[in-house]
Automatic annotation (TrEMBL):
In the C-terminal section; belongs to the purine/pyrimidine phosphoribosyltransferase family. The active site is at C2 (nucleophile). This is Amidophosphoribosyltransferase. It comes from Arcobacter aquimarinus. It holds the Pfam family GATase_7. The gene is purF.
Length: 449
């Protein structure tokens, strides 16, 4: 779920990279970093914390040059050490190199052990460092050829940006699981970013999505990036990007995220038609439940209300490491509008249920605020399987829908009724013109180690 960005051919590269990372802060709040290249040297600044905290004027003045790559960290592999922040930098035979990565390499342990057996010394717990070692140990004369051979040993979901002292190499895996888009900066040069919402903030025009299996090479000797199709495309974009991860104003692989979420809500309303369901208002769990709730209200004719107010200075809850911290963050993050909901029957819409504890807490605070009934609707299918492609969903045993059926979950969260979106309705809502990565819902682990 991390955010990555690459800026090439602009004298304010690092500053633009920091602005793009700010726009994509929702994809990771653990740590952030930028590497720039200038006069044959790579400069790197990374630290724990938010983009606005790390990239001060002093930090940006250090990051010189007309090319830069950046990263917001949301951990799936690795620990919380600052060494596990990105970009990952190294010196090797061909010079200096820095890499950012969004995704997860499912054969990381096997490759890492092989590299250790051959004498490699790892400094981080990240799968991203595997690529550094594979490139460094290769004997090819050109970096592009080293990258190609390294990727032949790299299995999983990945978007990489590899920066040398004078070039950038942008790679998306053959499945296109994680998003990556290319834009042209109005102030000169190019941008590559995980989400198109970054383009709006830096002043860039969308060109196209990076193709699955494609490598783009930015070189000072070319006016446009060179495109090489490394692998045959087997396009399987992640459905969870549309459910939860992406900002609603982003366009992911040609699909407007806001509209897809609105469609999910409409599908939930259609499924409730004909039921003896009497509710006074539709309430979203902010913020990711808002478009679906608006879609439900528009389809059903039931009034939409902001019955829960969110404190935007509290981060996302399901990625917190302990249950105690998740509970505390829910209380800090969500406050019910007592005067609005007291004595009313509510239809509450959230994007997903992972462990169930957040949903249980939401139902509880609404009923404590005087809600007569709370009917819970989920704008995605039941999450029954962990994802190994870049989402930090927990072990199978921690997923509530792996252990309980719908009625049992409803009883656990203490809702008056509970309904999910079906897999078929989710695909229809996003657009059934392509094959999606749905492993969290159906257990189809199509990328094999």
């Amino acid at each position: 779920m991390c955010a990555i960005v690459g800026i090439y051919g602009n004298d304010n590269a690092a500053r633009l990279a920091s602005i793009a990372l700010f726009a994509m802060q929702h994809r990771g709040q653990e740590a952030t970093g930028i590497s720039s290249s200038c006069d044959g040297k790579i400069y790197t600044k990374k630290d724990r914390g938010l983009v606005s905290e790390v990239f001060t004027e002093k930090a940006l003045s250090y990051l010189k040059g007309n090319m830069a790559i950046g990263h917001n960290r949301y951990s799936t592999a690795g620990g919380d050490s600052i060494l596990d922040a990105q970009p990952v930098y190294a010196k090797y035979k061909l010079g200096e190199i820095s890499i950012v990565h969004n995704g997860n390499l499912i054969n990381k342990d096997e490759v890492r052990q092989e590299l250790i057996d051959k004498g490699a010394i790892f400094q981080t717990g990240m799968d991203t460092e595997n690529l550094i070692h594979l490139i460094a140990k290769n004997t090819k004369d050109r970096l592009r050829d080293r990258i190609k051979e390294a990727l032949n040993r790299t299995i999983g979901a990945y978007c990489f940006i590899v920066q040398s002292r004078s070039k950038q190499f942008v790679i998306r895996d053959r499945y296109g699981i994680r998003p990556l888009s290319l834009g042209k900066l109005k102030s000169g040069g190019y941008i590559v970013a995980s989400e198109t919402c970054a383009f709006d903030l830096v002043g860039a025009d969308f060109i196209r999505d990076v193709k699955p299996g494609e490598m783009l090479i930015f070189d000072e000797n070319r006016t446009e990036p060179e495109s090489i199709q490394l692998f045959e495309s087997e396009f399987r974009p992640c459905a969870f990007e549309y459910v939860y991860f992406a900002r609603p104003d982003s366009v992911i692989d040609g699909k407007n995220v806001y509209r897809t979420r609105e469609n999910m809500g409409r599908a939930l309303a259609v499924n409730d038609e004909g039921k003896d369901l009497k509710v006074d208002m539709v309430i979203p769990v902010p913020d990711s439940g808002v478009p679906a709730a608006l879609g439900y209200a528009a389809q059903s004719g039931i009034p939409f209300e902001y019955g829960i107010i969110r404190n935007h200075y509290v981060g996302r809850t399901f990625i917190e490491p302990t249950q105690e911290m998740r509970d505390l963050k829910v209380r800090m993050k969500l406050s019910p509008m007592k005067s609005l909901i007291e004595g009313k029957s509510l239809l509450v819409i959230d994007d997903s249920i992972v462990r169930g504890t957040t949903s249980k807490r939401i139902v509880k605070i609404l009923k404590e605020a005087g809600a007569k009934e709370v009917h819970f609707r989920v704008a995605s299918p039941e999450i029954k399987f962990p994802c190994y492609y870049g989402i930090d969903t927990p072990h199978k045993e921690e997923l509530i829908s792996n252990n309980m059926d719908k009625d049992e979950v409803c009883k656990y969260i203490e809702a008056d009724s509970l309904e999910y979106l079906s897999v078929e309705d989710l695909v229809d809502a996003i657009g059934n013109d392509r094959n999606y990565a749905l492993e969290s819902f159906n257990g189809d682990y199509f990328v094999k180690a």
